[in-house]
Amino acid sequence: MKTIALLSLLLISISSCSKDDNTIPPTPSETMYFPSNTNSTWETKSISSLNWNQNAIQPLKDYLAQKNTKSFMILVNGRIVMEEYFNGHSASADWEWNSAGKTLVGTTIGVAQQNNLVNINNKASDYLGLEWTSMPLAKENLITVRNLLTMTSGNDDTKQYVIKSNLTYVADAGTRWAYSNIFQKLTDVVASASNKTFETYFNEKIKNKIGMDGFWNFGTIYTIYHSTTKSMARFGLLALNKGKWNNEQIINESFFKESIATSQNINPSYGYFWWLNGKTNYMIPGEQTVYQGYLVPNAPSDMYAAMGAKDQRIYVIPSKKMVIIRMGDASDPANPNFAVSGFDNELWGKINALIN
After folding, report:
1. Number of helical H runs and strand E runs in the chain
2. Among the listed residues 327, 331, 319, 307, the one whose alpha carbon sits nearest the alpha carbon of residue 356
3. Domain of 349?
4. From residue 72, how far is each of 34, 86, 97, 287 by CA, in Å?
5. Looking at the domain assignment, is residue 275 inside a domain?
6. Which end of the chain is more exposed for a tag (fewer CB within 10 A), N or C?
């Protein structure tokens, strides 16, 4: 009996050890990667390693080419998974961000606030001076920096030139959402508060810190940033990491989280220049219509996006640790929209076929 008992204990012990030995520890999450600011190297990751549907690659490329795309890039955890150039474009060529660059302006305002130069709850006239609009002074004084960040200044959005005579009253600030170029006055807010040109301040606080290239083109109709595709991707990676680059918090995380949350109670799909998916309804530039449902039904509900005319795009998807860039001419030349378009939903159908 004693021998049998010892044998049983031995078998139990062997079984236990065998079970322990065969247990595979969980794979640690892949670390977030940030490309160097000082050289051109950028880590890549293969599509096969992600178990994506490789049969969907060529249909996606064909669609992008047909839709006048110049460049397309997918990052996962900061690593390049897909990088494609079309129609004579190249990795070294600049292209316009159009209104996707509004997010650069909004982020720069956030940096100026964390440096105690700006308070977004203050009147815009604190930085721009009195009578910077053609509104009655009492109405102008209602406009805060936050109103400029959220497209709720109450100005006449049908006039595109940002000159004083065009900045006229339609509604009290905060009571009407209307997409317009008045946001450009935020560059003057930064310049006034910092005693530097907007571009100098932006370069010091954002561009140089994350290794971007590019330049601003300032005009009375449009203020547009131009850069390579990888520089747009760098900013998208900063956005994915809630304003952090490597170990440096470039933009205060709390401000960035405000930027990608509903910023007013009129258009829930709009933050501080970021477009937000997954909300119950949305509005689009040039209209006062409220549309029901998600901004981009085919896209993940947690996506936030920088969107510019002619379908310039930065899609950020935290749940997938993914950034997607699209630059190019308008997908539909007959409709070179200001921001949101049906192209987004079509494109996401193609992306889903690849990644799901």
Report:
1. 12, 13
2. 319
3. 48-355
4. 19, 9, 13, 29
5. yes
6. N
Rg of the chain's alpha carbons, rounded to an integer? 24
Report the number of distinct structural domains present in the chain. Answer: 1
Contact between 231 and 212 under an 8 Å Cβ cutoff? The reply is yes
pLDDT in tens, the chain (356 residues): 444 443 343 343 434 443 333 333 444 578 999 999 987 899 999 999 999 999 999 999 999 999 999 999 999 999 999 999 999 999 999 999 999 999 999 999 999 999 999 999 999 999 999 999 999 999 999 999 999 999 999 999 998 899 999 999 999 999 999 999 999 999 999 999 999 999 999 999 999 999 999 999 998 778 999 999 999 999 999 999 999 999 999 999 999 999 999 999 999 999 999 999 999 999 999 999 999 999 999 999 999 999 999 999 999 999 999 999 999 999 999 887 767 788 999 999 999 999 98
In single-letter form, the type of residue at position 334 comes to A
Q: Torsion-angle region of residue 249: left (phi > 0), alpha (psi -120 to 50) or beta?
A: beta
Structure token pair of residue 153: 């200044």
Q: What is the CATH number of the domain that holds 272?
A: 3.40.710.10
- Can you tell me the distance from the alpha carbon of 65 to that of 265, in angstroms, rounded to the nearest whole number? 38
* Residue 97 CA neighbour count, 13 Å, CB half: 30
* pTM across the whole model: 0.91
Instruction: Examine residue 20 and state whether it is found in any structural domain, yes or no.
Output: no
